[in-house]
Amino acid sequence: MMKVIKPSKQFMVHWIMAGAIFGQISLSVNAIPEKVEVILDGNSIGNTPIRKNTITPGSHMFEIEKKGYAPISYDIYVNPSKAINLDFFMNPIYDIKFKTEHTGLIFELNDTHRWTEETIGLQLEAGDHHLRVFRMEEIIDEQVILVDQPMTFQYYLKK
Amino acid sequence: MKNRYNKYFASILTGIFLFAGCSAFKPPQYPEVIYNDRKPLISVTYEYGEIDIQASLVYPGLRPDGLIVQVFSMGDTIRPLLSLHQEVSDLIQVYLPQGVFDIENETNFIKVIPQHPDFVPVWSPFLGIEFGSIILDPIYILPEPLNVTGVVKNQMTDSILVNVDVAIYELDQLLQLTHSDAQGNYALTILGEYKNNEDLRIIAGTDLIFTPFRKDIFFGERKDQIVNIGIGPSQTLAEMGNIYITNKENVHFRDEPHIGGTTQFLLPKGEPIVVQYVSKGLYFGTIEIPLESGVRSQVSGWVTRDDTDLLFFENIFKTDDESDQAL
Q1: Calculated CA dihedral for residues B230, B235, B238, B244, nearest 10 degrees
Q2: How distant is the Cα of A138 from the closest Cα of chain B, in angstroms?
Q3: What is the ipTM of this complex?
Q4: Residue B207's pLDDT band (boundaries 50, 70, 90)?
Q5: Domain identity same for A106 and A124
Q6: Distance, CA of A75 to CA of A62 (rounded, Å)
Q7: Most buried residue, A81, B43, B191, B274, by most Cβ within 10 Å?
Q8: Which CATH number is associated with domain B235-310?
Q9: What gap in Å lies between CA A137 and CA A115, rounded to an integer?
């Protein structure tokens, strides 16, 4: 036998935060470097650090851009919660001077970017890049180059 | 000649430098930024709220041996979010993470299962919140109620009697009162704590001209009992002759009509008696005595004529000026 007790109309609910009434979640955004403009769902919500902003549960997209850094586009499904904190660590872009003494070579980075000059200035996102070297459309060298600071990259053909 | 040549060459170089600037010595620049699509480092930290549910427990009677408290949400009454066994206490308090409840409809439940065979689970629905505290109304933990049901009939005609009072008493204390419905049925419910009480009895028909129906009941392990109530003289008695009923309390029912006769019973008001012989100022008749076994035993004796009235069946309900009978 099941007995049901109905709660009264004076059913008491204490809200910890007013934002909870509207299903809002407290949002804070930090980034490295500082003072990066944050675009949330196509609208600017200011520069980092961002405090005391709100976001609703569900799907959202953050876009972060700053000169000298690789832009970030981040899709997130925000869970129902009290607060969410996002920290973006932007990847820097370094000026790299690429030099070689060899002639007649074709260089290709990351399967896409090609050049033939013996000396060229490049803007590379920090991290690993895949370099291929061609001569007469034939791959003669392949290596991964690590970019972690502005530098001059001197290429020597392996013997 | 060589000097002149050097001057000429220097002038050209200076001209080029002035005209083109330092850029003349810069290497060509690749036209776009080359990304390696390295995943950016992003840290996402959630802070979840907590839902605190409190409900006070009230035990009007017996206390169970323990409690199991279960919390259900979103209308799911099979798989609890939380199930905990606790000692009997006056307060239950449970904590749940944010986002587990339906916050738009009362499809969330707390189920309290008393650990005792005499108790039944209690469900308490509530509206969820995102996070915070929910304080529910007190939850009453009651032993499983005891039920008595049956039908009220006129014994002589076997027809149902409508709107006859039926009550359950503990000694002289009224516990529950009801009336038979249009089909003659009645139902009484009392608290489960009376299950082992030996002083319970059903009394029915105090509004009728007949002696009220009385029957002792004992529940024990039986939560439901059926007690069919027969009121008035039985058909067997009615077939024996004219029916009179006593018109006052404590009517002497004697074994002999003359002086020296022994009073066998003191009859209550409304007791049917079938008159077989008439003597001056006295009636010889038969009454029925219900035995504990349910058998109705017949006993004959003498009553004073003035203590009885002829029974008319047009209206078996008492008139307003008649006083209540003793129980």
Answers
A1: 0
A2: 22
A3: 0.81
A4: confident
A5: yes
A6: 6
A7: B274
A8: 2.30.30.40
A9: 13
> Residue A5 — pLDDT band, cuts 50, 70, 90?
very low
Q: Map residue B306 onto helix, strand or coil.
A: helix
Q: Answer yes or no: do B38 and A86 touch at CB < 8 A.
A: no
Domain final position from A34, A60, A89: A89
What is B50-140's CATH topology? Answer: Immunoglobulin-like (2.60.40)
Of 2.60.40.3080, 2.60.40.3330, 2.10.110.10, 3.40.50.300, the CATH number of B146-231 is 2.60.40.3330
Task: Report the alpha-carbon distance of residue B125 to residue B123 in Å, rounded.
Answer: 6
Residue A110 and residue A85 share a domain: no
Q: What is the CATH number of the domain that holds A131?
A: 2.60.40.10
- Helix (H/G/I), strand (E/B), else coil: B322: coil
DSSP codes, B43-74: EEEEE--EEEEEEEEE-SS---S-EEEEEE-T
pLDDT of residue B280: 83
Task: Say yes or no: A58 and A100 in one domain.
Answer: no
The amino acid present at B130, given as its one-letter code, is: E
Q: What residues have CB less than 8 Å from B86, skipping those under 6 apart?
A: B66, B67, B68, B69, B92
Going by C-alpha positions, the residue among B87, B76, B31, B92 that lies closest to residue A121 is B31
- 3-state SS class at A118: coil
Q: Which of B43, B46, B56 to mutate to test the interface with A (most CBs of A within 10 A)?
A: B46
User: What is the rounded distance in angstroms from the CA atom of residue B213 to the CA atom of residue B62?
Assistant: 31
Is B83 in contact with B112 (CB distance < 8 Å)?
A: no
Amino acid letter, B220: G
Contacts of A83 in chain B (CB under 8 A): 46-47
